[in-house]
Amino acid sequence: MLPSEEARYRELMQEHHYLGDLAKIGHTLWYVATQDEQWAALLSFSAAAWKCGVRDRWIGWDWRHQYGRLRLLANNSRFLILPAWHYPNLGSKVLALCQQRLAGDWQARFGVPLLLLETFVDPTRFQGTVYRAANWTCLGLTQGFRRTREGYSAQAEAPKLVFVRPLRGDARTQLARAMLDPLYRTGAPKIMLTAEQMRTLPDFFNDIPDPRRAQGRRHRLAVVLAIAAGAVLCGMRGYKAIAGWATDLGPKARERFGCRREQGRYRVPSESIIRDVLVRVDPVRLDRALQQWNAAFGQSDQSLAIDGKTMCNALDAQGQQTHIMSVVGHDSALCYTQKKSVPCR
């Protein structure tokens, strides 16, 4: 989509959709349905909702696996049929065409496969007729809480109808498996931190000397290191991703990590602070603290992943490539053991 087309897309969405425009943040794809080169409908697909009770119960996945598998879902976050194009069956036809190509487009753009689509419909305005006609399944209503900058709204406001559409016949089975099919594994193991893990994680870094000057310190070293470690355990890679994960933490999570409270709000360290600390901290002491945390929480793993890699440039005395087999806990991301070997002759 050209910059001029993106501008037009956003203007039309802001003007005609009751929720207005939605910025393209993270994994997001925009689609335009055309007829005779005329724009007829606009669609947006984004990252899935972190939590949704009726969806999670329908899938049947364990909460320990859920966070790492949300990347296999996409949310139809906007669907707008332009005013001059309200023709019978147009909406279901557009949805069907998107479903046919979305998985391939998502894989090509983000390197992640898709198994399931979801969307949320306001029942005070619509009944989801278009989704029903396109063979989406209505699972029921959400509890009505909405996400805010401070976390979640204190009271239920407007429950939404939840619709889902599997992109594979075995989507539910795959998402709920104790061991995810290798076809759908991407990146490092991810976990969802519990409240207890958030509260105790800073304690493991209390004995590490702070390499920063005392003047101007706004965040305790243990808190900065705990947030960075928590972000990496949850799959973040790079300073920007770690800082973004920290910014997305709600008030309760920030309090559990021991963040500094200022003017009634818990503050998280910025990207520059996280980078400065991680560059200068003693790596030996940091590694020892992380190993202690793994030893304390790794025993809670209910399933293990076995992964093998060939070390392309590591050869034995006979010129054979070295192979490493690792056993990693799904919940803790702890590497329980590694075995080096060379192929038998």
Question: In brief, what are we looking at here?
Answer:
This protein has 345 residues and is α+β, with helices and mostly antiparallel strands. It has helices at residues 3-16, 53-59, 63-69, 90-110, 129-133, 171-176, 195-200, 221-233, 239-247, 251-257, 271-280, 283-297; strands at 29-35, 38-47, 73-81, 116-121, 137-141, 147-148, 151-152, 161-166, 260-262, 265-267, 304-315, 321-329, 335-341. The longest helix has 21 residues, at 90-110.
- What fraction strand? 15-25%
How does the major sheet shape up? 6 strands, mixed
Q: What is the average of the pLDDT values?
A: 83
Q: Which spans have pLDDT < 50 for at least 5 consecutive residues?
A: 336-345
According to DSSP, the number of beta strands is: 13
Radius of gyration: 23 Å
CATH architecture of the largest domain: 3-Layer(aba) Sandwich
Give the neighbour order of strands across the main sheet.
1-2-3-4-8-5
Distance between the termini: 54 Å
Instruction: Enter the CATH topology name of the largest domain.
Output: Aminopeptidase
Sum up the overall morphology in one term.
elongated
How much helicity do the residues have?
25-40%
Q: Which oligomeric state applies?
A: single chain
Full CATH superfamily name of the largest domain: Gcn5-related N-acetyltransferase (GNAT)
- Secondary structure class reads alpha+beta
Question: Helices and strands, in N-to-C order?
Answer: HEEHHEHEHEEEEHHHHHEEHHEEE
CATH classification, class level of the largest domain: Alpha Beta
Q: How many independent structural domains?
A: 3
